[in-house]
Design a protein that fits this description.
CATH topology of the largest domain: Rossmann fold
Radius of gyration: 22 Å
Strand content: 15-25%
Shape: elongated
CATH superfamily of the largest domain: Formyl transferase, N-terminal domain
Number of helices: 8
Number of domains: 2
CATH class of the largest domain: Alpha Beta
Number of strands: 13
Structural class: alpha+beta
Distance between the termini: 42 Å
Order of helices and strands: HEEEHEHEHEHEEHHEEEEEH
């Protein structure tokens, strides 16, 4: 059970393993793009190529769908970024249970956006945890965990791709340990749980009163979606890459400072940010020097 690109590595790893995949469950095709063309999710593309039966229930609580799964008599459900919460009746179908591959070091960052929030919050380490699912949201007993450092310039997109591969590797190790009887279940300490809710467009808006380091983490954490943005009057500016300048600032946060080649310096609540790549209302992603050739942002301009 999986839907987006993140789940592809795990499906590929299962396909290449000795385990038998009875079926692939994914979300229904959805309208996408300017033409609103009905588009299948990435996992469906892979499943069709591998020759697996594909099930796309609108709601997993549908009784007919649950009966269809029960007839397959699976030993396990493998769930990777599927996108729907599985009710207990569904979790009771597989003979052994349901294993989830979650992109955080549980019990930290339960929820839909663990990768993004780990970067936004400036964490230096994250990883993947496999758990035996229960009816709660990412609350089941932990099975295996693999940790990795978060690079100082790593975006959520970069980390997403790395954790996808780590997750696939950890999944296969989990199944191997399950087979040989060496897998142990470790209950989560629920008092240490934190949550990673799904991001909204407004979460990308920069609050220049925050410290520069926090803003830099936000920019990396919301790349590629929803993207970090600010405004100059009515012009919306999307910021892709920026670095921290450790210098004392005496002007209000959001004020554009003296410009230097290759960067646009902006005052923050502590120190300053140097923007290297930016996009205007209707343009494309550009190095800051190229952008400023067609759009003036003089010293003293206030962003917000």
């Amino acid at each position: 059970m999986g839907t987006p690109d993140y789940a592809m590595s795990s499906l590929r790893a299962l396909h290449d393993s000795e385990h038998e995949v009875l079926a692939v469950v994914t979300q229904p095709d959805r309208p996408k793009g300017r033409g609103r063309k009905l588009t299948p999710p990435p996992v469906k593309h892979a499943a069709v190529q591998y020759g697996y039966p594909v099930l796309q229930p609108e709601k997993v609580r549908n009784h007919a769908f649950q009966e269809q799964l029960a007839r397959l008599a699976p030993d396990l459900f493998i769930v990777v970024a599927f996108g729907q919460i599985l009710p207990q009746r569904l979790l009771d179908i597989p003979g052994i249970g349901a294993i989830n591959v979650h992109a955080s070091l549980l019990p930290r960052y339960r929820g839909a956006a663990p990768i993004q929030w780990a970067v936004i919050n400036g964490d230096r380490e994250t990883g993947v945890t496999t758990i035996m699912m229960d009816k709660g949201m990412d609350t089941g007993d932990m099975l295996l965990m693999e940790k990795t450092e978060i690079g100082s310039d790593e975006t959520a997109a970069d980390l997403h791709d790395r954790l996808s591969e780590i997750g696939a590797r950890t999944l296969i190790r989990t199944l191997e340990r399950l087979q040989n009887g060496s897998l142990e279940r470790v209950p989560q300490d629920h008092t240490q749980a934190t949550y990673a809710p799904m991001l909204k467009k407004k979460d990308g808006k920069i609050d220049w009163s925050m410290p520069a380091e926090q803003i830099a983490c936000l920019i990396r954490g919301v790349t590629p979606w929803p993207g970090a943005y600010t405004f100059s009057d009515d012009m919306r500016l999307k910021i892709f890459t920026a670095s921290v300048l450790e210098r004392e600032i005496s002007v209000p946060p959001g004020t554009i400072l003296e410009c230097f080649a290759g960067e646009l310096r902006v005052a923050t609540g502590k120190w300053a940010i140097a923007i290297q790549e930016i996009q205007g209302n209707s343009g494309k992603r550009l190095p800051i020097d190229d952008f400023l050739c067609g759009c003036r942002l003089p010293d003293g301009t206030s962003l917000g």
